[in-house]
Amino acid sequence: xxxxxxxxxxxxxxxxxxxxxxxxxxxxxxxxxxxxxxxxxxxxxxxxxxxxxxxxxxxxxxxxxxxxxxxxxxxxxxxxxxxxxxxxxxxxxxxxxxxxxxxxxxxxxxxxxxxxxxxxxxxxxxxxxxxxxxxxxxxxxxxxxxxxxxxxxxxxxxxxxxxxxxxxxxxxxxxxxxxxxxxxxxxxxxxxxxxxxxxxxxxxxxxxxxxxxxxxxxxxxxxxxxxxxxxxxxxxxxxxxxxxxxxxxxxxxxxxxxxxxxxxxxxxxxxxxxxxxxxxxxxxxxxxxxxxxxxxxxxxxxxxxxxxxxxxxxxxxxxxxxxxxxxxxxxxxxxxxxxxxxxx
Length: 344
Known about the structure:
The chain is α+β, with helices and mostly antiparallel strands. It folds into two domains: 39-113 and 128-157, no CATH class; 164-343, Cupredoxins -  blue copper proteins (Immunoglobulin-like, Sandwich). It has helices spanning 2-30, 40-66, 68-71, 78-111, 127-156, 266-273, 304-313, 317-320, 330-342, and strands spanning 164-171, 174-179, 213-214, 218-221, 225-232, 237-241, 246-250, 256-261, 280-284, 296-302. A five-stranded mixed sheet has the order 3-2-1-5-8, with no helix packed on it. α2 packs antiparallel against α4 and α4 runs antiparallel to α5 (127-156). The protein is elongated.
């Protein structure tokens, strides 16, 4: 460790000495010193700019093509197609501008390197040019923003009435998944009810909660709208399902939502990728603490018939743990006992 610090100190000292030398050189220029400023390093630096431009361009295109399949994952949702179109349009517009500006940026030091017999041109202003390079980017960016806003408005609009509801709750360091049962209506929750046997804080005094159940895997049907109701129990988390092009923050005290329609089952995606072990996943994209890396939940997309069969086989919280409703008022307790009996 001490050796590393000494090496850093030596580098900093050399850098300071070099900067002092450069400052002295600039001061001599300002004073009009007769000392010749231009040296061979001027041409070397100009050539290195061009070489860096060529090398970086080749490396950028090589890496982009080589890793294309890793960063351009297959789309598995309806809105994901629109999201990808917006992304590639934005990439094309900004990419063309990026390449042009950087070619000029690295070519100019070579083209206009210092020469004793050349004088810099004085070009104070050009109102027409300034109007063009202000108006054109403003119009292009406005079009990009409006396109993104329209897509985002559709995604965050109220979900269709026939949507399958799934609650995703983030906490350090896992996801808890709650389904509303056959009535498709989630029961209320209250953070004050959270304990070791009720980690979601479900309020079982709400009759809609009596058939709610949890699942270790997020199971959803293909081709039918699904509404994720998202919340957090402790700190900021973020629900990210890359193949669905889905990302939404989970914020304590501020429920969020995201609805989508899956277009490919897990088995279809495995066949497409030729990967029998492939699974869709939810990952957390907020640094939420030491165990952030473990916040992963599998999404299983199945055919609608298989989903309904799976849904009918699930047992509510109160069937697996009747103690959750032991303290309910008599009329609700009777309703809870009827619900329990139906699943036995």
